[in-house]
Amino acid sequence: MQTHSYDVVIVGAGGAGMRAALESSGRARTAVISKLYPTRSHTGAAQGGMCAALANVEEDNWEWHTFDTVKGGDYLVDQDAAEVMAKEAIDAVLDLERMGLPFNRTPEGKIDQRRFGGHTRNHGEAAVRRSCYAADRTGHMILQTLYQNCVKQNVEFFNEFYVLDLILDHDLSHEDVPEGEQVSVAGVVAYDLATGEIHVFRAKSVVLATGGAGKIFKTTSNAHTLTGDGMALALRRGLPLEDMEFFQFHPTGLAGLGILLSEAARGEGGILRNGEGERFMERYAPTIKDLAPRDIVARSMANEVREGRGAGPNKDYVLLDLTHLEPAHIDAKLPDITEFARTYLGIEPYTEPVPVYPTAHYAMGGVPTNIDAEVLRNNTDVVRGLYAAGEVACVSVHGSNRLGTNSLLDINVFGKRAGISAAQYAVGAPWVEMPENAAARTVAELEAMRRRPDGERVADLRRELQEAMDKGAQVFRTHESLVETLDVIKDLQERFSNVSVQDKGRLFNTDLLEAVELGFLIDLAEVVVVGALERKESRGGHFREDFPDRDDANYMAHTMAYRRVSAAEAADAAGIPPHETRLDTKPVVVTRYQPMERKY
Amino acid sequence: MTATLEETAPAAAAGEIPSFEVTIRVLRYSPESEHGTSSYWDEHTLTMYGTDRVLDALHKIKWEQDGSLTFRRSCAHGICGSDAMRINGRNRLACKTLLKDLNISKPITVEPIKGLPVLKDLVVDMEPFFASYREIMPFLITTGNEPSGERIQSAAQREVYDDTTKCILCAACTSSCPVFWTDGQYFGPAAIVNAHRFIFDSRDEGATQRLEILNDKEGVWRCRTTFNCTEACPRGIEVTKAIQEVKRAMITRAF
């Protein structure tokens, strides 16, 4: 076992982690720990753009962007946070340009902008050109640019290190710490994939930037590695997760595969058609049609299929039609996604419409933070030295449904804030003592799985989990479907304690790490479903067929989910201990905008 | 349905994806196993489907037959650059290579990319590759005060280096280069591509420094224009052309 000490440890090297590192590494001794090489992070898969009211091509201002974000999130957005994000968006884009990002340009040589779902002029009048972009690989260019600047600044990386535990000075999963009392972070425990060695990192500040958890679903645009690690670590140590029932299903995944086709396809003029060739979004969102927010478009698509108007031999998808666009325009603006259609489905988008269906895309919920990216341990107290930014976090700027492009914005705005906050705190803060046996729980869990001669296969349990989530907790949910899904999850939790891996070695044991990741997924799926059962209304990405309307009187509040175990169970590391998931609520911050009916 | 129909079209239900049998031969290396430090071939015959990629086949082996098979992967659609490997002797991304596009009547061979030390099975040590990348100063170099707004760049100026911004650092090009195989000191195509991306960016002022680095004896002049790199690039970057442009810049611009 090795130990390290850093002022700031950043967990995750996607957009949020590296943006934080660029701020923090100049101010304090910083290490970035990532389970992938930084350029493999899933920020690189983002396509369409990053919105900011630059007004380079038409009139726009950040207040409209704030309003769109609040309305897009179906009023569950904390409006102070949305305002920070929309205001700081402008500098966030300019920062990236000055770092070298090759944005597409206007004829005057300024950053070009295009339309995107839910982004409008003057509070919903018409779609506005707000998204700054680099073809349909904006996320790729952001990830590359941030990594390039990390190279420039000599940021220290620990690549292919998996963080497997978060150490606080109180284990809140079984310890009651009264409101107002101080809880601080001590560091993290990590596993070096190459050697199998355990590393303990002491840190005054820890920034969680581990991204999303799309792999709780079967059909997803997310990478295999998006297993919600940071969220699960926080949950296991007794920190709350906020609004986990809200998961975004992106309308245009390649049918059957889930691979993302950017909303930019519709921003550039693409049209969704059902099996009868009808432009059905005209019925669901008469004003902005195909550029309605994602929750509405995804639900409309699923509804077309459900009512028998799907396309294809099984009528189980709809069509994204680009055939009326000039091939040269497609090549200039949408080269990657049209290549995906050719490579994976053998479809030529110049001449044929592309089969699409909603795909699990983004967790609106996550580790609750305030606007300085400090992690909350209840509705009011922060954990000293602990920060979170990006998809792992819930600020909440996305409320119950994130607008397209606001995730790339979120990682830049709140990644930067997290890096600054973490470094500033670390410079003045004392070291918190790291317990002698900090790694004991991690080692015990790994060894139990590695040594178990035989048992359940990781892949079997994961497939059962993902299929149950797709069946019962996807675009349409009911009490019955959620209860059924929860039963499967409970069963999987028990079986997880009997998981064994075939690879018994120490070097590059990805078999073992997949088992650990499965544990994270099962934990998070439970929180999603328990929250969805309790929220007896429909709002944003959460649609209950048995409660199809938004219910502001009873549910205009964030969900806070806590996991509690008894002290004895906490000590027993192998498997998922018996536990109770307790739900609480947190008020939504409302500043300028009172909830209104959400029409587009 | 008649018996005749069933015989001729066993999986012909509407919309059903036809399945087929395919054999995957993987070159394994696992110093902790009973094979020690000698590599060996491992064969698996699998039932796969028309939309499946080589990565799906590797996952099927790992998840259903042999959990110890080790490879890197993440996004699974050709954008993260984790899973470059030699498939039937050619460098490709496993997640972008559909099985049906290969000759499935013969075993499909899968090996680690060449020229980088193999650590386990299909996993190679990427550090030398990233070290070359870092050496060419892959970041915007400017002098003077930062502008308060954006830098102005025309669409035409941006177009000059558009192709090389697509690089995902997967190493398919560098590890397909015969010069790199025999001389590990050579920067390799990927590093040159990323130098190109900045040398030809109108906002950048570091071209001279980068050209000096690449004028080194292990620099661009080692390129023998075999075009392996261009063929290997899963992003369709015209790698050899980019290298030629850097060579030309060296002659006309800096020295």
Brief account:
By secondary structure, chain A is of the alpha/beta class. Helices cover 34% and strands 20% of the residues of chain A. Chain A contains 17 helices and 20 strands.
Describe this structure in words.
The complex is a heterodimer of chains A (600) and B (255). Chain A is of the alpha/beta class and 600 residues long. Chain A has 17 helices and 20 strands. Chain A is globular, with a radius of gyration of 23 Å. The relative contact order of chain A is 0.17. With 255 residues, chain B is of the alpha+beta class. Helix content of chain B is 30%, strand content 15%. Chain B has a five-stranded mixed β-sheet with strand order 2-1-5-3-4, with helices on one face. In chain B, helix 3 runs parallel beside helix 6 and helix 7 crosses helix 9. Chain B is elongated and about 60 Å long. The termini of chain B are far apart. Residues 1-13 of chain B have low confidence and may be disordered. The chains are: A alpha/beta (600), B alpha+beta (255). At the A-B interface, helix 3, helix 4 and helix 10 of A face helix 2, helix 3 and helix 4 of B.
Poorly predicted spans of chain B: 1-13
What is the tally of helical segments of chain A? 17
How many individual β-strands of chain B? 7
- Ranges of chain A where pLDDT stays below 50 over 5 or more residues in a row are none
Overall form of chain B:
elongated
Features of the shown structure:
heterodimer; A: 600 residues; alpha/beta; 8-stranded mixed beta sheet; 4-stranded antiparallel beta sheet; 17 helices; 20 strands; globular; B: 255 residues; alpha+beta; 5-stranded mixed beta sheet; two-stranded antiparallel sheet; 9 helices; 30% helix; 15% strand; elongated; disordered N terminus
